[in-house]
Amino acid sequence: MQKTTEKKDLKKTNIYRIFIELVAVGSVTGVIVGIIVTFFNILVHEGERISRDVYAYVRANPAFIPLLLLALIAGAFLIGVLVNVSSVIRGCGVPQAEGATRGIVRFKWWRDLIAMFTASLISIFMGLSIGAEGPSVLIGAAAGDGVSSTLKRNQMIRKYQITGGACTGLAVASNAPLTGMAFAFEEAHKRFTPEVFICAFSSVVFGVLARTLIYQLLGMEVQSAFHSYVFHEMPMRYYGFVLLSGIVCGLLGVGFYKLCFWARKLFRKIHVKDEWWTHVSRIMAAVLIGGGVSLISVMVMGGGHELIESLGTHGGVSTYIAVKTPFGLPIVWVLLLVLVLKSLVTAVNVGSGIPCGIFIPIIAIGACVGGLMNGLWLEIDPNLAPYCDLMVMICMAAFFATVVRAPITSIVMICEFTGSFAPLLPVIIAVSVGYIIGELSRTDGIYEDLLEEYEKETGIHERAERVVFTLTVERGCIAEKREVRDVLWPGNARVKEIMRGEEHILPDGGTVLHSGDVLTVVVKTDEPEKIKDELLHILG
């Protein structure tokens, strides 16, 4: 009886020590990420404002178009240099951050942080269709890695802090703390464990507090997501429109997903003998296309916050949707034009590998679909007008869930954006429909597939070797009395066999680990010593 009590006390002591360490390091990570990402987003907002003024001036004075083209070419060259210096920043940032949380992608944190920070700002100042959220996730992940490296934490703690930094970056950039935490569970690790919750919670809370303090010191106000939207609880008689909108968003989401990967195949055809110039050429082509599209419509520029804001009707009070365009087209045609251009230029960004964020652009495309759906539904039933704002949010969530395959994050995000649970049921319906359509079309989440392509392009799998470790589950370790699926193993690690006394066990996800179990763990890695160190901290 005394020995049993001692075992329990030892396990509790070890777990408490790990939890305290996660909270302490997570708090430091949150503060640092909160400061960096806050200033990054302040600069992004200023860059979007300046770029809009510049493009408006050039549209009014076409003689300056050649000068704009020269500026775009110079900016593209600088971005190309940064991409060649730091390959991790290639693309939208989120896939690489997810890979780092799983131990698949490794950062040189200071280099990657500075490169992503700089390249993203250059892209924003050039007026491209790029959001701040994706880069903020990678910046936060790199900063989390930096904190762990500086404090000399082990590999296990480092992965948790990369996770905390990534979700804090998203929470601070989108002003949505719960969305940042949901990202950690659903996207980064695709599981819920106490350790993931603690690192996400502590980092996000302190990151948001740091952002709030900075805004107060600068005399700035933390704005709510969107001001032109007023939400009313939707009667059930309109749920048919919700269902149809979910179907449309699901089908268009699948189409957008395929468009992005078609663009990647197209940009692979841009190839010169020197790999350095290949990346520069692809980015230059994407920048020139993006600049040309931004000259056509100001609403395509930036991440899409202005576009989403312009689609609000103040709860049906406003009958005019304030979408600006250089052409005197009817509003339906304007929305259709913006939808096509925004989708096209976002796919071009994904295809070229330019450092960009597609988190908000995806949501903005969904909002544009919602605006078009409102026009159609109002023709059928004008009494739907008070719920037009809600319908836009529903379409945003359904489109995002289809493309990213993250339904929980989509639902939580919309509840945070609206500040209300009124849209919860219709959002769940539309998100479920979009998700099912994505499942039936056999498309994976866009971030997952981009991560897989990044691994192939950088040769991560080719460099990795198959290594077998035989380790014992020690008394009081964090893996003891947990199911195999609830342990955050190193990337590409698989528990192949368990020896429990004389018994051989072929484990599945539900197999519970006990002290004294001898595990055979197979890993594909190019750094076996680091993997062994991480396994020892999990099992020892």
Topology:
Elements: H1 2-60, H2 65-85, H3 94-101, H4 109-125, H5 133-150, H6 155-174, H7 177-189, H8 194-217, H9 239-268, H10 275-296, H11 305-310, H12 331-352, H13 359-380, H14 388-404, H15 407-418, H16 424-440, H17 446-458, H18 460-463, E1 465-472, E2 493-500, E3 503-505, E4 518-525, H19 528-539
Helix pairs in contact: 1-4, 1-5, 1-6, 1-8, 2-4, 2-10, 3-5, 3-6, 3-17, 4-5, 5-6, 6-7, 6-8, 7-8, 7-15, 9-12, 9-13, 9-14, 9-16, 10-12, 12-13, 13-14, 14-15, 14-16, 15-16
Describe this structure in words.
There is one protein chain. The protein has 540 residues and is mostly helical. 66% of the residues lie in helices and 5% in strands. Strands 1-4-2-3 form a four-stranded antiparallel sheet. A hairpin with a 2-residue loop joins strand 2 (493-500) and strand 3. Helix 7 (177-189) runs antiparallel to helix 15 (407-418), helix 13 (359-380) packs across helix 14 (388-404) and helix 15 (407-418) runs antiparallel to helix 16. The longest helix is centred in the first third of the chain and has 59 residues, at 2-60.
